[in-house]
Please model this.
Amino acid sequence: NKKAFIFDLDGVIVDTAKYHFLAWQKIAQSLNINFTHEDNELLKGVSRVRSLDIILGLGNVQASQEDKDKWLIQKNEDYLSYLVDMDESEVLPGVLKILKLLKEKNQGIALGSASKNARPILEKTGVLSYFDVIVDGNDVTNAKPDPEVFLKAAQLLHIDPKNSIVFEDSVAGIQAANIAEMVSVGIGEETILHEADHIFKDFTQIETSFINDLISQ
Ligand code: B16
Ligand code: MG
Model:
């Protein structure tokens, strides 16, 4: 049995949310907008363009497209500067063990992320070679909860959506997986991700038997 295992990036494989936060905070500060760690939760799984609109909304700031484009470039340049020193140590606990297991079992492995910086992040953290397929922010027009990113990943793996499993840390991502009729596995808090078919606090909580059961279903 070959299944498609589709991984979100930020919050699932690596914790890049902390770097997104630092970069957005600089933009917010320059505009006198109060932007907290709690506000940052609103940006998880959300595209760069939409994230800026959310931050401007927090401060009731109206801006021209020209200014917005400038801030989007600034934000990304700053974000990329935090990624320079990224290495294997930033892969979240338990992830590598599951990737190795899936490879051993000859399963399809894909990335399904909103980020336009996914490839260099996978490369720097040393996990790029595990992925048969990468679908990221450069490949889709509709953001999660639209299922486009996951459907595209399954299609590229030539595996039916019903035989696909999605690992996600965002509510919109879980909804996208559910709409695609894939098995949704939430990584994070049960209170937030309750729409998921299965929920784990992190990858260290996922047993080999859970993966084996998914493969043989
Ligand atoms: P970029 P994911 C998402 O990644 C992040 O959660 C979100 O905070 C970010 O705005 C988005 O990627 C776009 O990232 O600016 O690098 O294109 O969780 O979908 O892997
Ligand atoms: Mg995420």
Observations:
- The pocket of 1,6-di-O-phosphono-beta-D-glucopyranose (ligand 1) is lined by residues 8-11, 20, 43-48, 51, 76, 113-117, 137, 170 (CB under 6 Å).
- The longest helix spans residues 65-83.
- The longest strand covers residues 108-112.
